[in-house]
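Allow me, if you will, to draw on your knowledge of protein folds for a short while. The matter concerns a single protein, recorded as an amino acid sequence and a row of backbone structure tokens. Could you please explain, in whatever detail you think fit, how the structure tokens follow from the sequence? I remain grateful for any guidance, and I place the record below:

…
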Amino acid sequence: MRSGVACLGLIPLLLCSCSTPHQRNNLDSPDVLKAQLNYAESLLSGDRGSCEIRLERAQQQLGSVGANPQTRVMYPEGWATVADLEYRLHLARAECLGDTYRDAELRIAVDSARRAVELYRNLFDYHSMVVMQFDASVALHDLGASSAAITALEGALDMDREYGFADDAVENYRLLLTWRGEPASNPQVATLMQGFPKRQVVMKFGWSARAAQMTLESRRSCLLNGQFVASRAAAVFDRQIAATNEGGWAVSYANRLTQYEPGVWPTTPGKPPMAFPPAVIPEVGYKVSATGEFDVVTESGTFAAELATRTEELIRTSAPAGKQARDLMEAAVETAPANLSPGILEAATAENYQSETAMWIGATLEQGVWYEVGAPLTLPGMPRIVAQHRIKFAFTRMVPCSAAATEPVCAEIVMRITPDKEALDRLLADYNNRTEGVRIDNYTSSNTTRIVTDPTTLLPFARARQVIWSASLADGQSVLQSEHLVSTVRYSGWPE
């Protein structure tokens, strides 16, 4: 590794953003944050000892987690939990501290609940989102703001209807009737539940020849020796679906490198402490059968060479000044072909098609029901390693297909993907037994993906993916990276 290079591949299989010595003890790591939040939750759930002491200790844990706002990028799901726990904390303080502080604590509880609503929405955790909307209404009601409480509860019921949470709606309607001073028996609730939507989608493959424009953006971030470092990669290009002589479909791309930014150099100001590996975002052409089965990647070898050449140009022309930057630049240029190899491009292409299209062909999905399957996928940060993963997914709601559309005719599907622990442990043990380099002590990753697709054709319109992964190495170094990737497709002639 060249002098001044913080990270461009700690080990041959690990394509990482940053290396932080002894980060296992770093207060910014997800494991430490989770432990603090779990302790705060146990304090709020307990009933031993003085409530003032317990709540003060819980406040200290939450305050410690929130001390570094930059970690919100690294551990986004934790910040919804923080707002959730802050609601519970201030609700408990309103009861514990007496009338002098009651109203002030309840107002803070309302603000915390509303903040949690938006944070859970951004994570596509819609059930927790609705629960926090309900909790905001309860705190408002405790404040004596009856009208605002009813409005907030009606908002929760609107969410129940949109996302199909029938069980929640029954209880929420019962409470709404009570707050209105109306009878809240089962017949009255049943009347309000009439017409409650029970949705399902039947997914059918029905591609046709289409021209489209595709936009991709990848924002990556890491913590390096306590310093937050971020980068942005992006591309805009043309996409074409055309019929093949065999009766299937060929997907091809044009102008992929005209508006392309590999995201190697950090966007944070000052001297770059590191360079990121180029993001794998320009798509590669492929073919599928008439019924949608993935067939073959058609151009990975030729395009990989073009991509590596263009990436090298962009790395050199965008390099900051200074000796450290020159060393980083040379390392980035040297490793770019491996990071953008044909094999990596082929794997990314096949996995993207699988998650956007192939796995839904012929599926009938009930709204709000979580399903689970297993599949071999590449590990985030280690794209040369394939491991068995658990994929939990649900059809969450109907949405407009694009930002310009108004009618909710596309299906939103949310997936939560994690490596199968037993398979991962076996894989890492095998690697550590065979390698003569740095051993991997621990690896974790989480992947939350949202796709928007037309259920009548399975043409994909949007994909948002939030990936967080970390690895602890036997030499004391650790890697912690977050990536948020968003892609959208605009089809020519598609009704808006």
Notes: Residues 99-122 form the longest helix (24 residues). The longest strand covers residues 382-399. Residues 174 and 186 are 8 Å apart (CA to CA).
